[in-house]
Amino acid sequence: MKLRKISAALLLALILTGAAFASAYHAQPKLVVIVIIDQFRPDYLERARDQFGPSGFRLLTERGAYFSSCAYDYANTETAPGHATLATGAYSDAHGILANEMWEEQGERWITAVSDDSVHVVGMLGAAPSASPHNLLSETLGDELKMSTQNRSRVYTVSLKDRAAVLTGGFSADGAFWIDQLSGTWISSSFYMKELPKWVQDFNASGRAAKYWNRDWTNAAGNILQHTTRESNSRFYDVIGGTGFGNEYELEFARALVTSTNLGDGPATDLLVISLSPNDILGHRVGPDSPRMKAMWLEMDRQLADFFAFLGQRIGLANVWLVLSSDHGVAPVAEEVRDKNRIAAKRVDVPLLMARLNVAISKRLNRPASEFVHSGDYDFEHLYLSERAFAAGKVKEAEAERMVGEELLKLGYSGYYTRTQLQEGRVPPNETGRRLLHSYAPIAGWWVLGLQPPFAVSGASGTSHGSPYFYDTHIPLAFFGAPFEAGVYRTHCEPVDMAPTLASLLGISAPSKTIGRVLTEALRRENAR
User: Contact 476/42 with Cβ under 8 angstroms?
Assistant: First the structure.
């Protein structure tokens, strides 16, 4: 019987038959599944609630413990820091992940938060550099689960993005899987394994990625939203990854993982983290208010319901805990805010901004034009300084960072904080100051964190995230399973609370740098004592 057909009373009875006592050491529960939806705001759950079925999102928000006011307490709301925060129960100042990408001065190149030249891709021809958690300064919930159970627990992570899979998997994961962006083939890193398991090889060989090309992605009414046309330069990630097919593909792989590894059927509690990337890929293009976004949420609701039904049939929902969250929110499209709501909003041309900034610095130093400052194509929050270029002008770090910050103010920024300031703790003694300190990471050379006014976005179209404002920090957090008291909780809550809450219930140590609290208000009485 499919989960969506189970009555609320019967479902509750099934859950309560599971032992209230939890212990990872004795496989109670058998499996914890954390679903992280990339770029997912809580208001999405309200906008479409009357169109959701009973067994997808509403399983967690109505029959689980749902924290509607959960928000990150930092300013660098990006994918890599968000996944690291959820996994470690800490912010960037402790887990060390500053941003998705950083400028590496020594190699004069951009690197990602998980780039590691000492490891290589597993699952593709050639030995291209791959990814690892070597920049992560804290172990994860999965690492603690493995250590506490003497590796009897198994930990797997799945995402279209390497940074999402790696940073949630941590150091001890049995497997962290993501896709080759061109072909859609599932790959991993030699950090985790020498070769792909046979079941992954078989999955890749089955042609499941190819079946999504040249198809119509439609909404529930049958209206065509996008055609996945395959051309010579088409990338699976860009074309299919931004449709509902991308979520279907991820969850299809997750089913194969659970089935092939017998996850949830071991001597200790197992952990599966699924980071659904398509919501972010599409969201950047069309913004949170597009009908295409709503179509994706509605389809995702059905897809999650089917996946939860699969878990119920295979393992039994009384033996599973489910968690739903997100790595960050997103800003509305600037033009829509300005034209429809008459609120000041702007679009930042990042390449033009960088050109003007570098010209201004060269004039101040009376030096030839140079790349004194680097920024990603869309990231106008983190600006990385070239130590080499400033050294030629005999400028040291603190002075260089202050100089860049002063020029940012002239170019429309509302404020700035330098790496040196944050390292020394020189911030306002208030909530803003705390949020800024949480955004510091002791890596990436010289940099400045620049703050734009609210509703500033990057790119020629669509929208972005990465700010300290509520539309970027506000995310959902929901738990479903035997220990949790169903209800909507409006108490203060942060994503750092997820890891210590699960660790406490499982009877294992929380990650060593966790600063979150156990959400006792959402626990059944016998579990809250």
Answer: yes
Q: What pTM was computed for the model?
A: 0.95
**Strand partners of residue 115:** 131
User: CB neighbours (10 Å) of residue 437?
Assistant: 21
Domain ranges of the chain: 3-188+195-213+234-330+470-528, 346-458
- Distances in Å between the Cα of 508 and the Cα atoms of 112, 119, 430 are 31, 30, 34
Q: Phi-psi bin for 401: left (phi > 0), alpha (psi -120 to 50), beta?
A: alpha
Residues 6+ apart with CB under 8 A from 87: 140, 141, 142, 167, 168, 170, 273, 499, 511
**425-454 pLDDT, tens digit each:** 999 999 999 999 999 998 879 999 999 999
- Of 510, 513, 505, nearest in space to 24 by CA: 505
Token pair of 394 as six digits: 């005999």
Q: Which residues contact 106 (CB under 8 A, 6 or more apart)?
A: none
Q: Residue 20 — pLDDT band, cuts 50, 70, 90?
A: low
End-to-end CA distance of the chain, in Å?
A: 36
CATH number of 346-458: 3.30.1360.150
pLDDT in tens, 153-175: 999 999 999 999 999 999 999 99
Strands 186-189 and 175-179: antiparallel
Closest CA relative to residue 61, chosen from 304, 251, 292: 304
Is residue 467 within 8 Å of residue 448, measured between CB atoms?
no
Burial 132-155 (b: 16+ CB within 10 A, else e): bbebbbbbbbbbbbbebbeebbbb
Q: Hey, which CATH number is domain 3-188+195-213+234-330+470-528, 3.40.1010.20, 1.25.40.10, 3.30.1020.10, 3.40.720.10?
A: 3.40.720.10
Please answer whether residues 244 and 294 qualify as being in contact, where contact means their C-beta atoms are separated by less than 8 angstroms. no
